[in-house]
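Sequence only, no structure available. Ideas?
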Amino acid sequence: MLKIKRLSEVIGRKVFTDGGDIFGIIEEVNLIDNKVDGWRIVVSRDSSIGNLLGGARGIIVPHQFVKAIGDVVLISRNAVPMQTGTDEDMPLDEADMI
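Reply:
I predicted one. Tokens follow.
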């Protein structure tokens, strides 16, 4: 049986990745033409993901990355920005070699 939730009930719910890591809390829902387009999530201080965002307070996760909404919201790990390598790991281009 499909349970329908009000969007106001989802705001304030904790968000976890499908890997089990805490991500943050739902702050706002983005709607386009009466359909959910994305979720604005404030990154939790307990989350290790906060370091990857720099000074940003949170991110907007497109709705297609949401896997489940219940007592908590479950999102795909692909929605989380990945840490890029350091400058030492990046290959040099020709301009840097001169």
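The two ends are 66 Å apart (CA to CA).
Hope that gets you unstuck.
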